[in-house]
Amino acid sequence: MITRKSKREVEMMQEAGKLLIKTHKEIAKMIRPGITTLEIDTFVEKFLASHGATPEQKGFSGYPYAICASINDEICHGFPRDEKLSDGDIVTIDMVVNLNGGLADSAWTYTVGNVDQVGRRLMDVTKKALYKGIEKAQAGSRIGDIGHAIQTYAEGEGFSVVRDFTGHGIGPTIHEEPHIPHFGLPNKGARLKEGMVVTIEPMINEGTWNSKMDSNNWTARTVDGGRSAQYEHTIVITKDGPLLITDQGEER
């Protein structure tokens, strides 16, 4: 069932979003060759606790960490680990913050040291694809409008759009209806209504869009070893257009 949030619920999610933004900005300062994603995971859990919040995905369906940390060819749900990040890697940090029952969800891909031109272009196209999808997140539009905008842009730039994982509604739990595919046809799917809160989180690959699952049954990676990037915002559908509650204030 698709739910629409009250003003109070949106305000709670906005407060969680503010903390999530702070957390990502602290992570950005940490990313460098030699750090491990397990160190980042430990930092995030302590940082959230110091602000009275918890990492919502820890324990969700048995997931054991505060963040997902997906490196290079890992599409999503990468486990934090002791392996040091290397110069030239790209790494996506995805997390859900629970602050007093309000949830906010955001993923961000970071460069580790000197990333090659193709990797940087992949990241740039993925971020632009996110915002092209957000532009279509208007009350009265349909879910397919979002996916179509993302797919046509990303594929037009020579990249592929992951099909196996989607955005979603959020609050009061991590994954709510509706699913938000990052591909599809315009004027198809459920209609967006004021008060809905969703995530848009395109995962864009260098090569084919197909994925395979690691033995941990969580981590998805590309079948051809190509790199994958992801950017995600939590968005409130309002009568005045999409309201980003995880906006870091970056240039678009």
Automatic annotation (TrEMBL):
<comment type="function">
    <text>Removes the N-terminal methionine from nascent proteins. The N-terminal methionine is often cleaved when the second residue in the primary sequence is small and uncharged (Met-Ala-, Cys, Gly, Pro, Ser, Thr, or Val). Requires deformylation of the N(alpha)-formylated initiator methionine before it can be hydrolyzed.</text>
</comment>
<dbReference type="GO" id="GO:0005829">
    <property type="term" value="C:cytosol"/>
</dbReference>
<protein>
    <recommendedName>
        <fullName>Methionine aminopeptidase</fullName>
        <ecNumber>3.4.11.18</ecNumber>
    </recommendedName>
</protein>
<dbReference type="Pfam" id="PF00557">
    <property type="entry name" value="Peptidase_M24"/>
</dbReference>
<feature type="binding site">
    <location>
        <position position="105"/>
    </location>
    <ligand>
        <name>a divalent metal cation 1</name>
    </ligand>
</feature>
<feature type="binding site">
    <location>
        <position position="77"/>
    </location>
    <ligand>
        <name>substrate</name>
    </ligand>
</feature>
<comment type="similarity">
    <text>Belongs to the peptidase M24A family. Methionine aminopeptidase type 1 subfamily.</text>
</comment>
<feature type="binding site">
    <location>
        <position position="94"/>
    </location>
    <ligand>
        <name>a divalent metal cation 1</name>
    </ligand>
</feature>
<keyword id="KW-0378">Hydrolase</keyword>
<dbReference type="GO" id="GO:0006508">
    <property type="term" value="P:proteolysis"/>
</dbReference>
<keyword id="KW-0479">Metal-binding</keyword>
<feature type="binding site">
    <location>
        <position position="175"/>
    </location>
    <ligand>
        <name>substrate</name>
    </ligand>
</feature>
<dbReference type="InterPro" id="IPR036005">
    <property type="entry name" value="Creatinase/aminopeptidase-like"/>
</dbReference>
<feature type="domain" description="Peptidase M24">
    <location>
        <begin position="11"/>
        <end position="239"/>
    </location>
</feature>
<feature type="binding site">
    <location>
        <position position="105"/>
    </location>
    <ligand>
        <name>a divalent metal cation 2</name>
    </ligand>
</feature>
<comment type="subunit">
    <text>Monomer.</text>
</comment>
<feature type="binding site">
    <location>
        <position position="201"/>
    </location>
    <ligand>
        <name>a divalent metal cation 2</name>
    </ligand>
</feature>
<dbReference type="InterPro" id="IPR001714">
    <property type="entry name" value="Pept_M24_MAP"/>
</dbReference>
<dbReference type="GO" id="GO:0004239">
    <property type="term" value="F:initiator methionyl aminopeptidase activity"/>
</dbReference>
<dbReference type="GO" id="GO:0046872">
    <property type="term" value="F:metal ion binding"/>
</dbReference>
<dbReference type="InterPro" id="IPR002467">
    <property type="entry name" value="Pept_M24A_MAP1"/>
</dbReference>
<dbReference type="InterPro" id="IPR000994">
    <property type="entry name" value="Pept_M24"/>
</dbReference>
<dbReference type="GO" id="GO:0070006">
    <property type="term" value="F:metalloaminopeptidase activity"/>
</dbReference>
<keyword id="KW-0031">Aminopeptidase</keyword>
<feature type="binding site">
    <location>
        <position position="232"/>
    </location>
    <ligand>
        <name>a divalent metal cation 1</name>
    </ligand>
</feature>
<feature type="binding site">
    <location>
        <position position="168"/>
    </location>
    <ligand>
        <name>a divalent metal cation 2</name>
    </ligand>
</feature>
<keyword id="KW-0645">Protease</keyword>
<feature type="binding site">
    <location>
        <position position="232"/>
    </location>
    <ligand>
        <name>a divalent metal cation 2</name>
    </ligand>
</feature>
